[in-house]
Specification:
With about 475 residues, the chain is α/β, with parallel strands linked by helices. The chain contains 15 helices and 24 strands. Helix 6 links the parallel strand 8 (about 170-175) and strand 9 (about 200). The structure holds ligand TXE.
Length: about 475
């Protein structure tokens, strides 16, 4: 059994109420450990620890903060195998993905923000004619809350924590209750790297109890959240009367628009990945595929053929392409959406069924699924499934493609495949999303603003945007003679 504790003030603690939640291994459906169901009292203890640490941490030089963050990054790299195994076991994702993406990216989050803080500068404005100079102080906020989801557990947890502490804040953080393990292991690494006690506190537990207590805490002044749109809306309602700073990265229903003039082979290979990487459980996956009519038939045949070759298997098998979905509840949600699509008259081109993996019969496996739809208003094209399910349909003109792409409540990312420069610019300007990829997918530069529009959230993370979010700007105006 792998039991997990809270990490508060540099020490590991059982929850005060001694209440525990079962933690499941998605690859075989078995309980393999327990995690605290932390209450308000644990969150209060974490807050007090963060508050005590803040005085010193906020006055620690940026060189020293940078040194510690980079040390955490190095220790994560040195522990790659152990962390990747833990992530794969907890989440169901293929070990190859955890090793090549999740853990390296968690390490680069610490390295990136360790470096970024040494380059972060504020503005100054000389008020010529008034004999005055204005400058902006960028001060850490104090104690901030970071709440992350289960799909990219350590990757997204550290994406919030690293800029928060780099900017001089102290943190009360909660990973998803479905994937608590790597966040727990991170506590040990932080101690080893010499992160002062209380700068980072990790409370484990359910969203509705532990997460809610973080959001409701009157003295936790900012919340950075990634998760479902409904949860984001609830958090916004709770936090608004307290005027908390909020960064919300929510769901997506991203269009993948394919024109006949694209590099076909590259597009096909990337589209398989952008559809099914991490079992389709990435907010950036291109789940609505729109294909120019002249290549639609060919694309349909080639795409189905390639997707049928993907291997659904145990996450620890290096040759697995599609691992287990994160939970039974999530598997049921995905199945339900396939059924809804069928009931609405859509055609399942491949997949659509649960998979039994030999020896792991109780695991949560599902076939990569392609559904042909006739219009964009059906539920499968309008609601976030967040699983290995994509839809395809054809379009005739650029105008039609743009309308289809934007006709959805979400606005996180979009992918466009074309070799036409004018079309590239037209779509870049007119797509209602926070991110546009042209002839690629999920290529990330950590300096760029990351986030969505419409129901995909508010605020941007990444680069100096994250450091700006985690600091309070104060203008100082000095009059001189
Ligand atoms: O996410 P939740 P769920 C989407 C995806 C998925 C759906 C629901 O469509 O099927 O959301 O997933 C914490 N106060 N995404 O229910 O509940 C929770 O404990 C404070 C997209 O698993 O939003 C966890 O730590 N916190 C997405 C985190 O919020 C609360 C990634 C996310 O969980 C809370 C995940 C509350 N009241 C799901 N309630 C993406 N954008 O990448 C829950 N939490």
């Amino acid at each position: 059994m792998q039991n997990i504790q809270n990490y508060i003030n540099g020490n590991f603690h059982n929850p005060i109420n001694n209440e525990w939640i079962d933690n499941y291994n998605p690859s075989n459906g078995a309980v393999y450990g327990q995690i605290p169901n932390s209450s308000k009292e644990d969150v209060e203890q974490a807050y007090q620890s963060a508050k005590s640490a803040f005085k010193q941490w906020s006055h620690t030089s940026f060189e020293e903060r940078s040194r510690i963050l980079i040390k955490i990054s190095e220790l994560l790299e040195a522990n790659l195998q152990r962390f990747a195994e833990a992530e794969s076991k907890d989440n169901g994702k293929p070990i190859s993905l955890a090793k090549s993406v999740d853990i390296p990216r968690a390490a680069s989050n610490f390295r990136f923000f360790g470096n970024a803080i040494t380059q972060f500068a504020s503005e100054s404005h000389e008020s010529v004619g008034q004999d005055a100079i204005n400058f902006t102080l960028r001060q850490p906020i104090g104690v901030v809350g970071c709440i992350s989801p289960w799909n990219l557990p350590l990757y997204l947890f550290t994406w919030k924590i690293a800029p928060a502490i780099a900017a001089g804040n102290c943190v009360v953080a909660k990973p998803s209750e479905v994937t608590p393990l790597t966040a727990y292991l991170l506590g040990e690494i932080c101690n080893e790297a010499g992160l002062p006690k209380g700068v980072l506190n990790i409370v484990q537990g359910l969203g509705t109890t532990t997460g809610q207590a973080i959001v409701e805490h009157p003295d936790i002044k900012a919340i950075s959240f990634t998760g479902g749109t409904a949860t984001g809306a609830h958090i916004a309602r709770t936090a608004a009367p307290m005027f908390k700073k909020l960064s919300l990265e929510l769901g997506g229903k991203n269009p993948n628009i394919i024109f006949a003039d694209c590099d076909y082979d590259k597009m096909l290979e990337t589209t398989v990945r952008s559809s099914f990487a991490n079992q389709g459980q990435i907010c950036l996956c291109g789940s609505r595929i729109f294909v120019e009519e002249s290549i639609y038939k060919k694309f349909k045949a080639d795409f189905v053929q390639k997707v049928k070759q993907l291997k659904v298997g145990h996450p620890s098998d290096e040759s697995t392409d599609i691992g287990a979905l994160v939970s039974k509840t999530h598997l049921e949600k995905v199945e339900l959406y396939v059924k809804i699509a069928e009931d609405e008259g859509a055609k399942i081109l491949c997949g659509g069924l649960e998979v039994t993996v030999n020896g792991y019969e109780n695991g949560y496996y599902f076939q990569p699924t392609i559904i042909e739809v006739q219009d964009n208003v059906c539920r499968i094209n309008q609601e976030e499934v967040f699983g290995p399910v994509v839809t395809i349909m054809s379009f005739k003109t650029d105008k039609e493609a743009l309308v289809l792409a934007n006709d959805v409540k979400y606005g996180l990312s979009a992918t466009v495949w074309t070799s036409n420069l004018n079309r590239t610019m037209q779509f870049s300007q007119k797509l209602q999303t926070g991110i546009v990829w042209v002839n690629t997918w999920m290529m990330r530069d950590l300096r760029t603003p990351f986030g969505g529009t419409k129901a995909s959230g508010v605020g941007r993370e990444g680069g100096f945007d994250a450091l700006r979010f985690f600091t309070e700007p104060k203008n100082v105006c000095i009059k001189y003679e």
